[in-house]
Amino acid sequence: MNPYRAIVTAFVFGACLTGCSQPAPTPPKPVAVEVVRTAEPEAKTAAAVSAEPVATAQPQESQSQQAPDALDQLRAALAAAGNEDDRVSAIDALAALGQNARGALDDMVKAVADDSPRVRWHAARALGLIGEDAVTTVPLLVKLLDDADPIVATQAAAAIGLIRADDDVGADSPAADRSAYEAAGVALIKKLTHPDPRVRRAVLRAVKRLQPAPGTYLPLVTERLADADASVVLPAIHSLADLGAEAVPFLTAALQNPASRYWASVALAEIGAAAAPAVPQLRDGVTSGSTEERMQSIMALASIGEPALPAASDIARALDAPEGSLRFAAAFALGRLKAGDGDQALEKAAGDADPFLAAIAAWARARIHPDDAALVSSAVDRLSAGLSSPKEGIQTASISALSDLRGTIDDTTEKRLAGEFIRLLTSPSPAVREAAAAALVRAGAVAVEPLESALGDVSIRGPVLEILAAIGPLSKDALDSLVKALDDPDAKHRGDAAVAIAAVGPAAVEAVSRLEKIVGAADAPADLRYAAAFALGRIGPAAKPAFATLRALSSSEDELLATVAVWAALKIEPGDTALFGEAVPRLRRALKASNDVARLEAAVALGDIGPAAGAAIPLLELVSEEDPLPGVRAAAANALGRIRAGSTPARN
After folding, report:
1. pLDDT tens figures, 404-436
2. How does pLDDT run across 331-370, given as a tens digit for each residue?
3. What confidence score (pLDDT) does residue 68 get?
4. Which residues contact 499 (CB under 8 A, 6 or more apart)?
5. How high is the pLDDT of residue 42?
6. CA nearest to 478, candidates 447, 522, 514, 506
């Protein structure tokens, strides 16, 4: 199944419907959110819950008066709990008391030793919510950082951070408390290279909350980054980069250590523009260190963009370096920065005996002088020659560079290049195929006509439909061909076409009747029906004629079909409150899908439901903190805000 069709099946196939633990994949690839059991109540991360409003209008004094009775009752409920679900329910209820649950510390300490990982991480979360009164449990939470279950380790790290954030530590604080936080900081940094990205992110957030003195943990950070094994370092780099600007001070300081300089530059390059404060140190790195370190400093400056322009003269001098890697990096960086100061050096490089270096230099000059038709034409010609190179690296770089010139070349040339990129979709090299597909997506509307023409080539029509889907609403001009493809004898091709139609969105209204017929056909292949339902949902209110069919299927015995159908029905009639009861549990399960788009769509739909989706708050909190993709985390956070819109702010 291709990745675009997987969007619609991931609602269930990509989710653990009865609960499972997913191992982290080989670093540095990001992993999906670990799935927890779906029995109520679901999990809240300590970091996220700290901001959750308490739905009560009672003043603080009234809460305090009632707290002892509630505390005693909940402690009794926890002691009497005979199964995992009941223990989690009682722990969550105690956690909701916040500081008023300090009388249950012993109960939580006992619970973090439970055989069930689910109970352990709920208990760790509760300790964090109790706050500074739980400072004595910090050493215990440090031990939990070694738990075999990554969610337990994640919640332990978050709890340490919450306790410290609630504790006004000063010189007059008990020595034991200060010592506990110092030891926790060391232990947290050692988990910077944990194989699970959720743990790494939680660790970095917790370290920030510990508010260490400048330089306190830097030696430990640089020690971790100095590891020679890329499989160990790259995951840490990914997590640091994922924090964006927050990680820049750590990384800027790490540039001072030769042992960690290279990897710190890699992370800064991934962060991009937000890494601007590191420009002075990276500029120093252009002229000092090993060839690899200098090259990576140049690439980081290129990624930062305009704030790195003061380094252009240093980068330009690297065009005279004897090392080919430095010359290529310098030419690329000067073009990326559109650095006029490097134009003279680039003009010289454009005549280099190495045709590819000359092509990159010509590209860089075209970037600097986008209105110079002769320079642009020269760059296009030279890079086009690279498309036929026997070297994969030259092909992929040529594709990317040509794509980067879009907007400075005429439509006729862009369409010709689109045809070249389509030709490369048959390349034996996966990297070349991926680069060509990415270039076609970036080309947008200009590529739609040649892509539509390519649908007649059976050997590439699958990738072509994926690209049209990725282009999105701009693919509307190909809609007639996409609708026609819904009648193709190949069910897989019909499903691909349905997903491409889904990407067109509301403008695909003319496909509604055909899609409804497919989704309502009991004898149609199951995954085709899922794709059709997904497309109807993406079309939205304009697909209202199909609402009754989808509404009926929302209670289907086919869990996949019911999930996608109820989601689609809500997209068509978002105010139909009668759907909420069926939709919320299904969408909660979709939040656990391995597919990114499925999680994103589920989060958005739950936010659309609003306060009636309150049962999804715990899992949305988990996703908002721990999902591997920033976009999904942001969607979950937005959904939480919309669901909580009518709540009364907490008073602590």
Report:
1. 999 899 989 999 999 999 999 999 999 999 999
2. 999 999 999 999 999 999 999 999 999 999 999 999 999 9
3. 61
4. 4, 5, 7, 8, 465, 469, 531, 534, 535
5. 36
6. 447
Which residue in 534, 455, 454, 452 sits closest to 501, CA to CA? 534
Q: Which residues contact 514 (CB under 8 A, 6 or more apart)?
A: 483, 486, 487
* Joined tokens for residue 378: 């020269």
Read off the pLDDT of each residue in 122-151 and give the average, rounded to a whole number: 93
Instruction: Read off the pLDDT band of 221 (50, 70, 90).
Output: low
Asked whether the bond before 41 is cis by omega within 30 degrees of 0, the reply is: yes
Give the separation between CA 130 and CA 424, rounded to whole angstroms. Answer: 58
| Separation between Cα atoms, residue 294 and residue 315, nearest integer Å | 10
Q: What is the CATH number of domain 45-212?
A: 1.25.10.10
SS (H, E, C) 394-446: HHHHHHHHHHHCCCCCCHHHHHHHHHHHHHHHHCCCHHHHHHHHHHHHHHCHH
Give pLDDT, residue 230: 65
**Cα 110 to the center of its chain, rounded Å:** 35
- Select from 525, 607, 521, 517 the least CA-distant residue to 571: 607
Question: Cα(180)–Cα(172) distance, rounded to whole angstroms?
Answer: 15
Calculate mean pLDDT across residues 470-486. 96
Contact present, 529 and 494 (Cβ < 8 Å): no
Mean of pLDDT values over 59-76: 63
For residue 271, count CB atoms less than 10 angstroms from its CB and return exposed for 0-12, middle for 13-18, buried for 19 or more.
buried
Q: Is the model's pLDDT at 298 over the cut of 90?
A: yes
CA 439, CA 451: separation in Å to the nearest integer? Answer: 12
Q: Where are the alpha helices (DSSP H) in 339-391?
A: 343-349, 355-368, 373-386
What residue has token string 């959110």? 33
Closest CA to 272 of 251, 256, 255: 251
| pLDDT single digits (tens) 174-203 | 888 888 888 898 898 888 778 887 888 888
Question: How many CA atoms are closer than 13 Å to the CA of 160, on its beta-carbon side?
Answer: 35
Structure tokens at 137: 């449990």
11: pLDDT confidence band, cut at 50, 70 and 90?
very low
Global pTM? 0.69
Q: Which DSSP string corresponds to 268-332?
A: HHHHGGGGGGGHHHHHHHHHSS-HHHHHHHHHHHHHH-GGGGGGHHHHHHGGG-S-HHHHHHHHH
Amino acid at 130: I
Three-state DSSP class for 114? coil
Domain boundaries, the chain: 1-42+574-652, 45-212
Both tokens assigned to 247 = 């990680």
Which residue from 128, 160, 140, 166 is spatially nearest to 43, judged by alpha carbons?
128
d(CA 23, CA 3): 20
Q: How far is CA 383 from CA 232, 300, 335, 359, 438, in A?
A: 36, 24, 14, 6, 17
Residue 36 has pLDDT above 60, yes or no: no
The tokens for 118 are 């689910």
- Residue at token pair 């969007």: 7
Contact status, residue 284 vs residue 316, Cβ threshold 8 Å: no
Q: How many CB atoms lie within 10 A of CB 470?
A: 18
pLDDT at 116 over 60: yes
